Amino acid sequence: MAEILPTGLNAAQQAAVVAGDGPQLILAGAGSGKTRTIVHRIGHLIADRGVAPHRILAVTFTNKSAAELKSRLSSLIGDGGGGVTSGTFHSISLRLLRRYAEAVGYPRSFQVIDSDDQKALIKRLLKQANIATDRLHPSYLLSWIEKCKHLGQTPQQAPADDWNGIKLHEFYSSYQQQLRDHERMDFSDLILNVVILMREHPSIAEALQHRFDHVLVDEYQDTNPVQHEWLMLLCAGHHNLTVVGDDDQSIYGWRGADIRHILDFEHIWSGAEQHRLEENYRSTASILALANMVIRKNEDRYDKSLRATQGVGEIPQWKVCNDEYDEARQISAQLRKWHDMGYEWQEMAILYRSNRQSLPLEQVLRETALPYRIIGGVGFFERLEIKDALAYWALLNRCGDGLQLMRICNRPKRGIGLKGQEQLAAQLAASGLRAPEWLDLLANEQAEGAAKKLVPLAKLIVSLREKISSLPDRGLMELLRSSAYLDGLQAMGELEAGGRTDNIQTLQRYIELTMEQNLTPVEFMDRAALLQSGEEEGKSRDNENSVTLMSLHRAKGLEFDCVVLPGVEDGLLPHQRSLDDGEVGIAEERRLLYVGITRARHQLKLTHARVRRLFGETHHPTPSRFLKDIPAHILQQDMPVKSVAVAQSSENGMGVGSSVMHPSFGEGMIIDFEGAGDAIRVSVQFRKVGIKRLMLKYAALVLL
DNA sequence: GCGGACTCTCTTTTT
DNA sequence: GAGAGTCCGC
Fold it and tell me: Are residues A252 and A305 in the same domain?
């Protein structure tokens, strides 16, 4: 174990913290004190080298880790820490574009489009062009466009790919035009447009280059080419770029992340220094042994091995279950066992490959009265009623747009159908006004055709506007009530409406909270667009002390005492999709398993269901190929304990947990006892030959 | 324009 | 197997 310096850092961490100017690559293995190192480096820049906090930019992967970074910085160096600019690529880009959007042909009041609306837009585009989904699938087109954007290509720069006689880049072009017409940017546009801004406007680029003296990037292994260009452009002046990452944890290839950015960092940035953090302070040696064994099989990686600094701990367990419900019950029982051992619920997590896996788990955990909370799935701000409510609210607060007006024009029913909507859209466009101003016009009864049906709503909005500043939620609830939107919800059935009303109330609280911080409605909409779940804010969740359920992707950067990884089988991990894509995808899946394993501090259990139902079909998956050749002393089979009464010990002092020697099978450990007297059978986990069930009377076992 | 019945697709992962 | 999308009669 490495010696810890008086600063609380080990030598490698300390070197990275005090490294000088110029590009710095910090290769930080899982649990090696990565965040700690970044925080201390920023602290060092401010306190020892006199860099002003606001001249430091820290780019993180999620909004949550940005907040975490800030709070840790504040506790390290006091108030100054709060002045550091931090956020995700997307949120920082959005902030820049709020200022410079006009230079890329957008009004500064543009909005972000979410993935549902984005998909709807693409679908409509294809429909207008009379292209059936079996000729070109909307999601294929969308992912092709996304790929271009990840590579930093504008429609003009996109390859002239032809798909069934369809020119994809032309659709990219018209999709961008649609977005422009609606004054919307999608997520990828946020980054691409900042890059375009700097490419095409040297003076702005220069201004931005002078804005920050030091740039630090976390989770660097997950950057894609356009983000890379973003960094190149931003750091062009000073090259003071510190990146932290772990190539073994690169799991966003599908979002265009290119592992080469970290593997080739020293070639891309001349004069770069490399720092390696390989001491793991998180997991037991037994867990790390499994992690190292799993990841070693990947080829394209910095050759390294995490060194354990914690005790040996317990051997990770492998459990085979009958089906996904049996799996859920076994997991529930395991969690309870850990709880009985003294672990808190909130120190346990179930991390799965696919959000869909949460369904049976949820059901069983509820039945067995275990406290749990699910992170992810359908995000709070993606819910139908939340999007509706926000559309109403945005129009009321003068930052809504045509898309939002179309969204709510017939909710509740106002007798406006498809035709009516088209008419509205045309009228709005012809008026040359923004949606909120157009509503002013309607309120004065200057309305034709379908628009007439909107007059009462317009009047309501205009009259409410006079008093929104005196309402803590800026008119949200009153508008939803008076417009009969809430009544409309009731029509969906009582149970569902109840949940949706609760969500709207959560939204109200959230708006009130944000308004207290003196943010503008636009700033609130920005937050809503970039924050995928309301949960991110952390507060207001009643079930604090509960088991966490989330996807492996979301678990990156987190740690728990006890971790269960369900569904470690071919088809799920590696996922079927990546099996179809071949080697590169499978390597990423292996890293995903590695990420899952290294989340655990003390206890780790992997499970597999022999039968798994998917889309109503029954599958019979085999255990994950990643576990092939993992010996039993690294990953131990968990056998069912059938008879508790005699499980304790036999007359010769043997019991569950005893180490024994068998004349031909060698060394092993008793993991199960069943029966009594001469009929006692034991299950022994042998180091070399795996698990054997033996009659104790005849087995000639010797206690070690 | 609306509602009910029918068909069909689907999510692997997230800013 | 559920939710969205489509078709049809009113």
Answer: no
Structure tokens at A534: 């309301």
d(CA A629, CA A553): 26
A246 plus A306 within the same structural domain: no
Quick one: pLDDT at residue A538? 41
d(CA A59, CA A222): 12
Read off the tokens for A703. 């206690």
Range of the domain at A555: 295-371+538-638
% residues pLDDT > 70 (chain A)? 92
- C-alpha A156/C-alpha A145 separation (Å) is 12
Helix (H, G, I), strand (E, B) or coil at A373: strand
- pLDDT score of A64: 84
Find the CATH number of the domain harbouring A141. Answer: 1.10.10
- In this structure, chain A runs to a length of 704
Counting the structural domains of chain A, the total is 5
Torsions phi, psi of A666, nearest 5?
85, -155
CATH of the domain at A47: 3.40.50.300
Rounded mean pLDDT, A681-701: 73
Structural contact between residues A231 and A214, judged by C-beta atoms closer than 8 angstroms: no
Give me the pLDDT at residue A289, please. Answer: 93
Of A219, A324, A570, A588, catalytic: A219
Whether residues A72 and A198 share a domain: the answer is yes
Window A364-423, strand C contacts by Cβ < 7 Å: 384
Calculate mean pLDDT across residues A545-550.
92
- Residue A658 (CA) to nucleotide C4 (C1'), in angstroms, measures 57
pLDDT(A645) > 80 = no
